[in-house]
Design brief:
The protein is of the alpha+beta class. The protein is globular, with a radius of gyration of 17 Å. The protein contains six helices and 14 strands. The strands form three sheets. Strands 3-4-2-1-14-12 form a six-stranded mixed β-sheet. Strands 5-6-7-8-11-9 form a six-stranded mixed β-sheet. Strands 10-13 form a two-stranded antiparallel ribbon.
Length: about 280
């Protein structure tokens, strides 16, 4: 049984080096993840420099995750410094090949460190931090192109071997996936265009593992807005983080859930257990 975890940490840099109250909450979540002993851990929005994790970052990571390989991709010029970025921690016992592909995305999206893939013997493990459509939907058109490019990338991988794709997809696909759908149809992450893009991705031969196991009845969320102080207390959240799997391995998924991140708002980690 393989155990996999995915989490948008909203700054690994801050979690490992800051003394803020929020950083302390982030470290509590890292301890929760540590206890799971996952084989692969995907992290989004690392916000590390171009050169990747520093000696201090690696030293701190080692305290939480000894015996793991560290694979990473950071935002590169001309994209903004210390922006986005992804990382995968893989147990030393696993043989992996890391790829940080260019998918032909618009603007600087291919340079923002949003996509990191590990190839293992029996499957591909893809970590993604999907671009947000932004305030005023200023990046919606570019986001739509990204969705097409990313969908094609996953489909091409799937022709070779099964795919497990995880991360922050920045879209609540169905009305059940957010607390207040009626007032958010023009909000980034719930526009018709983004939902359609996600649907087309699934149509390429992929399954939302959470809905596959739990059906369309549970209102469970993976993200609560930091700007709204009561969002988590009132559970006015969104489910925008996913573990997708190739259709042909969907019945091998045994668990797909959210981990408890305590009082920390923003994203909560996901966990997947699958027999491969």
């Amino acid at each position: 049984m393989l155990k996999l975890i995915s989490w948008n940490i909203d700054s690994l840099n801050a979690a490992l080096t800051s003394d803020s109250a929020r950083a302390e909450l982030s470290r509590n979540v890292l301890n929760t993840i540590k206890e799971e002993g996952a084989d692969l851990i995907a992290i989004q929005e690392t916000k590390l420099p171009v050169t990747g994790p520093s000696a201090k970052h690696r030293e701190e990571l080692e305290k939480y995750f000894p015996g793991y390989q560290v694979h990473w991709i950071s935002s590169q010029p001309p994209a903004r410094k210390g922006y986005a970025g992804t990382m995968i921690l893989a147990k030393d016992s696993l043989e992996v090949k890391a790829h940080s592909p260019q998918i032909g995305a618009p603007d600087t999206m291919d340079q923002e460190g949003r996509l990191l893939t590990l190839e293992l013997e029996g499957f591909y493990f893809v970590n993604v931090y999907t671009p947000n459509a932004g305030d005023g939907l200023k990046r919606l058109k570019e986001r739509q192109v990204w969705d097409q490019c990313y969908g094609q990338y996953l489909a091409d991988l799937d022709k070779k071997k099964p795919v497990i794709a995880c991360g922050d997809f920045n879209v609540a696909y169905q009305e059940i996936d957010l607390a207040n759908p009626d007032s958010n149809h023009m909000s980034a992450g719930f526009t018709d265009q983004e939902r359609e893009g996600f649907g087309k991705l699934l149509d390429r031969g992929f399954v939302d593992s959470f809905r596959h196991l739990h059906g369309n009845v549970e209102r469970v969320y993976s993200w609560w807005a930091q700007r709204v102080k009561t969002s988590k207390v009132n559970n006015t959240g969104w489910r925008i983080d996913y573990f997708l799997v190739s259709d042909r391995i969907k019945d091998q998924v045994k668990k797909s859930e959210m981990l408890d991140s305590g009082p920390r708002q923003d994203h909560t980690p996901l966990i997947l257990e699958i027999e491969l």
